[in-house]
Write a structure and sequence with these properties.
Layout: E1 8-12, H1 19-23, E2 37-41, H2 49-56, E3 66-70, H3 77-84, E4 95-99
Parallel strand pairs: 1-2, 2-3, 3-4
Helix pairs in contact: 2-3
Length: about 100
């Protein structure tokens, strides 16, 4: 990881036109070795099923125990919700707050 001692990250990106393409990089947070708490507000960003899939890779973060994802007012659809279900495979996730 680029910040090996980063434990907590809060990103408020509501209404920033991130879209699916902008979320591809967030899948790399799944490899963040020290990240424990991650809050990501992506409301009003045209996020669809592909963006949801990129976020689902957060299940790989080895120490992540609290994840807050705000995806309200996007285009996640039922396929995107299905893809987010991959978060259930996290070995360490204890608290998941998901707003669709």
């Amino acid at each position: 990881a680029q910040a090996p001692s980063l434990h907590t990250l809060h990103l408020i990106l509501a209404n920033c036109h991130v879209g699916d393409d902008g979320l591809i990089g967030f899948s790399k947070f799944g490899k963040a070795s020290s990240l424990q708490i991650f809050t990501l507000d992506l409301a009003f960003n045209e996020v669809g099923p592909d963006g949801a899939l990129a976020l689902a890779y957060l299940y790989q973060a080895p120490l992540l125990h609290t994840l807050r994802l705000d995806l309200c007012c996007n285009k996640v659809t039922s396929l995107g919700a299905y893809r987010l279900a991959h978060l259930q495979y996290s070995a360490t996730l204890q608290h998941l707050y998901l707003n669709l």
